[in-house]
Amino acid sequence: MYRIGIDIGATNMRVGLFDPTDQLVAREQSHTEATSGATQALEKLVRMIEAVDPERLASGIGIGAPGPLDVDNGIILDAPNLPGWHGLRIRDELESCVGKAVFLMNDAKVAALAEAKIGAGAGYSSVQYITVSTGVGGGLVCDGEVFAGSHQHASELGNMIVDVSLKNGTLEDLCSGTTLKRESRVLFGKDKTAADLFMHYDAYHPEARRAIARWLQHFGAALTSIIQVIDPEVFVLGGAVILHNPWLVEELKTVVTQRVYGTMKETIQLKVASLGDNAGLYGAAMLVK
Amino acid sequence: MYRIGIDIGATNMRVGLFDPTDQLVAREQSHTEATSGATQALEKLVRMIEAVDPERLASGIGIGAPGPLDVDNGIILDAPNLPGWHGLRIRDELESCVGKAVFLMNDAKVAALAEAKIGAGAGYSSVQYITVSTGVGGGLVCDGEVFAGSHQHASELGNMIVDVSLKNGTLEDLCSGTTLKRESRVLFGKDKTAADLFMHYDAYHPEARRAIARWLQHFGAALTSIIQVIDPEVFVLGGAVILHNPWLVEELKTVVTQRVYGTMKETIQLKVASLGDNAGLYGAAMLVK
């Protein structure tokens, strides 16, 4: 069965055609232009679908999109990074345009599905994927299925409380790429990025060392709480912050090992995601039944 | 099918016989005397089993015991409240004494199973039970099955990190009955209990108000994080601290509603446990297959 996967991000939209052996055989990428409105975006998506699948081989289309979503009804609700798309009934609209079944899921959850099935989490029974880039998101995959929760809100990890004493003490407040960029700018100048912070860390700049040490403590605390709640077999960590600094994962393991109960220290497994930018595209195609 | 449930606590052991309609038809209770050693405890358990089931009707025995446990091998590892029992192979020992299949599970998880199946969580697809007494424990039940996690450590909620800025910032450090008792003693004298703290709260004592307000913020933060990780359909809260002060549950709902993402505020459900002291006994019997 041929399938189409679509990965909608704030910056880029990607459309891929997968053959019956799950190989990516055609791929299109384009700017999202999220402010230009839903009609134009849909027209562009339809053109991209025709470009990757001119012979109309695909049985269906899976979409990973930033939340919050109404998954049951295939609607993008009020995703902050897609301002022109609020309320877009993307499933029904696209189904009526292309005449194929369309499936919608949160972008981090489809990436989790791909990493769990064919990426760094392959072979593990339960995989907690976490992505750290502009924000913090995640997806839990148990026995090959996304654990969605009772209201499709499972693994909305960015809003976990890490430091209750702070006004802004959530995992996303403390550990997102946006936060690292802000800290970099405070320390090193207003044109700096998170990458500059890590560069100064490598050069043993004391403030940069402290900032990353705090990041490790905060992120490690969230990982500890996740272990105490669901005890996943493995964590797979991805997103730009992790993929550009994969050594963070070993450091996180040290922090978590110090924090969990004694009998749990030996079973902690943390891995770096292995599918890179394509995780969302692969996972979206996996939604097609 | 008749079943026997055993609830082993630091203070008391309870043994109950359930008839084929799941009614509790006989019940024995005795002091645990956890320091007297495993041999004496086993002998006492065997006598209690004979007392509730003299005609040997039961097909099997389920045990809820404080952890950490080696569930696969039926061993009590190093439960801090059962000092004489460390390493006790309770499943094999009891099976050889009574000639029936024995099943072992963490005490909070069996209570969760009972609350989910016949208690306050009945009818919900996923139930996060949390007990707050001497310590803080829990159990997650999805579609009638305990979600144990990859290493049987799911819902060891006491070690969730609530305030990373504190040396002792776990949920149990901040919210257990032991902590409330300690705060009561600091404020009101060394013979005081958690109940005295709540009494002074009712009398609008400002320090008592602040202590309970802190407890609500801390516990609410943990509930928020649990929602973000697994999005359970309902929380069922039990244990002495909650059962003696059930109004806390409505207050917690207010705190959690302020903290979760916008689209999740309307779906939060928190309930008070309904099986009281017998939850562990009922749930233990449910382990018998």
TrEMBL record, chains A, B:
Q: Which Pfam families does the entry link to?
A: ROK (PF00480)
What GO annotations for molecular function exist for this entry? kinase activity
Q: Which Gene3D superfamilies match?
A: 3.30.420.40
Annotated keywords? Kinase, Transferase
Name residues in a coiled coil: none
Q: Which family does it belong to?
A: Belongs to the ROK (NagC/XylR) family.
In Swiss-Prot or TrEMBL terms, this protein is called Putative sugar kinase
Species per Swiss-Prot/TrEMBL record: Listeria riparia FSL S10-1204
